[in-house]
Amino acid sequence: MLHYLKIRNYAIIRESEIQFNKGLNIITGETGAGKSILMGALGLILGERADTKVLLPGAEKLVVEGGFQLDSAALREVLEANELDFESTTVLRRELNAAGKSRAFINDTPVNLQTLKEVGVLLIDLVSQHQTLELNEEGFQLDLLDSFAKTLSLRDNYQQEFKAYSRKFRQLNELREAEQKARQEEDYLRFVCDEIRELNPIPEEEQELENRISELEHAEQIQSISFSSSEALKGAENSLIDQLKSIQAQLSSLVRHHQGLPALVDRINSNLVDLDDIASELSTIADKTHSDPEMLAELEARRNKLIQLQKKHRVSSNPELLELFQGFESRLAAIGTLAEEIEQEERACSKLEESCRKLANELSSQRATAAPQLENQVLELLREVAIPQAQFEARIETSTQLSLNGFDKLSLWFTANKGFPMKQIQDTASGGELSRLMLCLKSLLADEANLPSIVFDEIDTGISGEAALRVASVMSRLSNHHQVIAITHLPQIASQANHHFYVFKDHSDDQTTTRIKLLSEQEQVEEIARMLSGENPGEAVIQAAKEMMKQRLAKNL
Fold first, then answer.
1. Where does 200-218 have alpha helices with state H?
2. Which of 111, 167, 388, 477 has the most CB atoms lying inside 10 A of its own CB?
3. For residues 310, 315, 317 and 320, what is the CA-based torsion angle, rounded to 10 degrees?
4. pTM reported for the whole predicted model
5. Distances (CA, A) of 389 to 296, 462, 470
6. Domain residue spans of the chain
7. Across residues 438-446, what is the average pLDDT?
């Protein structure tokens, strides 16, 4: 339950601490005194967005803190999942400074708003007059039925399986699209691979081709100059080698007479050997070099084909062509692999779909059984809150198409008046009737939701007299098993309080502030009397207030 609520510098509340208790906690007060401010502050620690407009003028920081006493497996699980310590009192705190920076804490550990909401929803249910709009939402309506049917756990199991199925189905479609694209490319890939394979480019071939083509293009010059050079060196009369031999012979006759001549003679001998070798190689080149126009044309044609293929595929060398070829071959091979993978994924997807349909059918069956029971109990409660002619139906539309919630869509139909056709809730019912309908639903679902605390913020708007007494009775009965906190302007409801808080404005300081106090039994009588007749109630009104409170005391005996 909500043990305490501390508020500092929120709206017109400078500082306040409220100690709540078990049973029915009623909050009343002057119009504009700040009753709704309490709910705004409570909303902050439940993860609602903060706005600096709610900061007390002149204050640097607002702080709202709530202490909740609850030990449940679900709470422990969520705290553990978020690496938060469990304490006997779970403390939620929210801070907001003048610059608009907001911080949230659980048991003094900083958390984000999402975590604050995840924990807060397990601690308290805040039901405002505006929350009746949720009755129009399909998701909220289905939550009501599943809570009542006790199928929330089954639905969680189904949704996990459905999400796995959806992921697998997406993966299967991606594979199918990939295969379709690959099949569309297959002819092109095969053509390119055949084209490259037929040309059979060799990694080092390009430079060899260039060298051979250049040689054939200049064959006549190479042959002529190589032959004449060989002849000049060795073959012709009075060749260069013959002249060097003559010089060598003459110098050799003088080596005994000059110390520098032996070395020079040796160098001439060495050069003679080199020149003789050069002359022989030139002669060989001249003999082997021939003009071959057909071979030249053939080599040029291959070079041109390689260049054209490289340009066609936007590469600049044979190694890059071969790399492209290997990549295309891999993609061709993968087409067959994709078909096998698709077959495996289809089997897995089919298995998951079968599991989903089994769970969805089970959900549908239990919902169909629970819907009439929900209708009967809601109608019974509607009679208790003074809508005796009400009609209420939970209509389920079932399809064969799987969705996140199974096969079913739920719509709630309602009319408060005899002889009028039922319409969907968003198209019918006054604010007061919707408030009472919400109260009936919350009463039914409180045990299923396992919430220790429920807060009603002026949910009694639009009712009075006998209807108010009936609503008070339902709230009182609900408070036997849950902590109920209710802001009300009706004396019939206030008279049922186990603990009555009064909100008022204090003008004693320089700045008006809102204060709240727990009323004694006599103060409660006086407050209910004022609610009945206004300020300065007479003795008869005070006696009427006492009688209303006695009815509550009699019920508790």
1. 205-217
2. 111
3. -110
4. 0.65
5. 107, 18, 15
6. 1-124+451-557, 180-336
7. 81
